Amino acid sequence: MRQQRTSPPREEESKEEGDDGIAAVGHAPPLQNGQLVQAACRDLVHLDFQAALLEEGFQEDGSGEESVIRRRESESQREPEIHEDTFAEEPSYDDGKMMLTDEEYQWARDIKSAAQLQPDLDKLPDFWYAQIALCDQGDVDAALHRIHGLQTFWKEYKVILDNLNSARKVVRESLEDLFPGFWLSLTYSPTAGHYTLVMDAVKLDMSVLATHPQAMDSLILSMFYVLHAANPDFETIRHGLYSIAECEGQDWKNSMGAGDMRRVWTEIASVYPIRYQKLDHIHTNMVVNMMWSLAKRYLPKNIRDKFDARGCSDVERLDKLYSIPTLEAANGRFLGTVMDSLKKRLENEASFSL
């Protein structure tokens, strides 16, 4: 059934476009001096994830520069029940999140028609054609290339898209066993219409490969499910994902090498149809800057332009904000959000048709 998106754009959003024509919600331009860096970091804390923390049971003490986010005493003293459903964010969905404009609808139809003419491509749910259309802005050739990449990824990693138990197992393994502390938060903002993903890059310790040779495969597959969870409907796809990475303490010893970064990019990051608002990295150092210099060689311009590095010397590490009351509780919240969103995604796929 044809659906049109009729809700007007939010006034607070500004749009920018990369070389590929993909618009993303605009953020502040690159910062030029230490004073602006500190101001932007305060804004980052108070505007981008403060609201999410308050929704999860935190409260703010003080105001201005002395403002501190802490757990409500009654909450911090209560013994948490660790179960992913207990900590799940429960975003409020409505039919407006699944609307397409006339132009978007035609893009999706064109991509679907072109894909069905290629015998080596499997048929996808119509939702996928619409998602790809929104990301590639109707570029049929780019869309077909992306579908080939997705199909290759699904076959190599034996992905069963409607198997939530498999997704739960993969994400849980990444959270608890292989890279504990790497995934900090996935939060949906009803007012902004997008998800914010928070990670601690320092906890992505690649020395685990010595004892778990398949850890890289598990990481890439968990990335697929997390990205998938951040795109459950057309509104979130349109607005794009806002990614924040904690980098304090990053060094060469256990970090990803150039080969690992290239593999992540070619196998999943460049294949999955997603739009990014911003890729913020805070508490960066010389190592992070050098790693970025290596990575940007194979990243397209529209992704490079969304990368931002901030010193943020007046903001504490993100794990102290998100791993409350414990890392185990934070893992439960994260997994609950992922599973709730994947379930909603499957429901939307089943009900949508071009």
UniProtKB/TrEMBL annotation:
Residues 1-30, 58-85 are annotated as: Disordered. It holds the Pfam family CRAL_TRIO. InterPro entries: CRAL-TRIO_dom, CRAL-TRIO_dom_sf. Gene3D superfamilies: CRAL-TRIO lipid binding domain. Residues 67-85 have a biased composition (Basic and acidic residues). It comes from the Eukaryota. Residues 213-325 form the CRAL-TRIO domain. Coiled coil: none annotated. This is CRAL-TRIO domain-containing protein. It comes from Seminavis robusta.
